[in-house]
Amino acid sequence: MKKIIMAIACGVLAVGIGIAAVGCGARGDINVYNRESGSGTRDAFLELLGIEEENLNTGVAQLNSTSAVIQGVAGDEKAIGYASLGSVDDTVKALSVDGVAPTEETVADGSYKVSRPFELMYDETALAENDLLAEFIEYLKSSDAQDVIAEEGYVSVVEDATAYAAPAEALTVTEITATGSTSVGPLMTKLAEDFASLVKTANNQDVSVRVSGGGSGQGIKDANEGNSDIGMASKEVTDGTDITNEDVTIYQLCADGIAVIVNTANPATNITLENLTKVYTDSSLNWIDIGVEFPVEE
């Protein structure tokens, strides 16, 4: 009778928080993956969960890129982490949060709560002298760029965009740089490739937008100090606080969901915001404590 009662209690816990359970009694430490300090994804994630830095779980593994988190979770059956929705692939599993799956549609309509903007920063006064930068910014507002954004799994925030008209004459500048967020970087690379192709078709000129990482903090720093033509951040950037250079303009490139990811062998399908917050603040939690049980290995 005791075993039956325990099984029922276990099932009620799992159903009550909307997380799948298999078997009863199997326990497993939660291996928590986090991004490094200075990451815009980290800043946005912790802010959305209401977690202060001093309350963060001290047992988390801190990784320095989106790809590192995905690879880490893919190779760790008991792991949980987070990554840009547009970067998530089939090597990991994205959980629903409070019953809402992370999709372009749920990010766009606001029902998926763990989402943030991708933002770019550039010196407005440089546009008059740097024709390549001016053309690239113009391209980013076009329907061509919005198509790339959608194809890569992100949400466009530009209304009534029109097709980009590449210059018929050669540009005086042939290379610009974009630095910062490793979440924004892959999308910017795709946009840069499409832009360069359109310019090549229009005037047979080879141009390049050279994209590199360093994190959102680096992108903000580079924009303020003029170390790169474009800074990239995967969080909301505040004028006057983050941006202290009065010549720098902030441009929202798109919106992105932050996917909560687990290993494909994990039976979980959903997690509540409450339990997600606990995972990132309480180092003593096991998977069973939030209703997730792994099959007992014989």
UniProtKB/TrEMBL annotation:
Q: Which membrane topology term applies here?
A: Lipid-anchor
Keywords in alphabetical order: Lipoprotein, Palmitate, Phosphate transport, Signal, Transport
Instruction: Using the record's annotation, list all stretches that form the PBP domain.
Output: 25-142, 166-289
Q: Where is this region: Disordered?
A: 211-231
How the protein assembles, per its UniProt entry? The complex is composed of two ATP-binding proteins (PstB), two transmembrane proteins (PstC and PstA) and a solute-binding protein (PstS).
Please explain the role this protein plays, according to its UniProt record: Part of the ABC transporter complex PstSACB involved in phosphate import.
Among PROSITE patterns, the record links this protein to: PROKAR_LIPOPROTEIN (PS51257)
**Entry's localization field:** Cell membrane
A single Gene Ontology CC term:
plasma membrane
Tell me, in one coarse class, where this protein mainly resides: membrane
Give the UniProt family note. Belongs to the PstS family.
Give the protein's recorded name: Substrate-binding domain-containing protein
Q: Name one GO biological process term.
A: phosphate ion transport
